[in-house]
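Encode chain A's predicted structure.
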Amino acid sequence: MIKSSKNIFVIMGVSGCGKSTIGRMLATTLSLSFFDGDDYHPEKNIQKMSKGEPLNDDDRYSWLKDLNLLCKEHRDHGAVIACSALKESYRNIIESDLDPSPIWVYLEGSYDVILKRLKQRSSHFMPAELLRSQFEVLEPPTNAICVSIEQEPTQIINSILEKLGH
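Encoded structure for chain A:
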C-alpha cells in the first residue's frame, strides 16, 4: 500500500481518540513532519467549540481547505496530519486534487472509552460535552486503515505499520 515514506497520512477520528499522540509517533517512526489539524482552526471555530457549540459544515469548510493546502505543500516529501475528518465529504475536501490520495488511518473507539479520556484531559479547547455531536456526524471511512484505540500507543503504531506492509 505504501510506495515510499513520501506519503501523506491523515490520522482521523473523534476528539480524544489519540490522533495527536499516534500522529506524532507515526511521524517519528517514518521520519516525517507532523501537523496537528487543530492548529489550523480559525479563531472563531476555537471560540465556538470552547463555548460547547458544535461546528457545522460551514464552520469547517475553510479549515478543511487549509488542510488540503497543507497536504499539497507536503506531497513531495510526505507528512502526518491529525484531523478529525468526521464525514466523507470532509475527507473529500482534504484529498481534493491530491495524487496519490492520503493514506487514512482511523482510530476507532467507543463513546464511553473516549469520554473517559476526554474527562481526564484539561489542556484542550474541545469540551467533553461535544463528543456526542462528533459521534452523531461521524461517518466511519471505508478506505482507511482502521485501528482500535483499546491498545497501547506502541501497539497501535505496530498495527498501522503491519497494515502498511512494514
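The mean pLDDT is 90.
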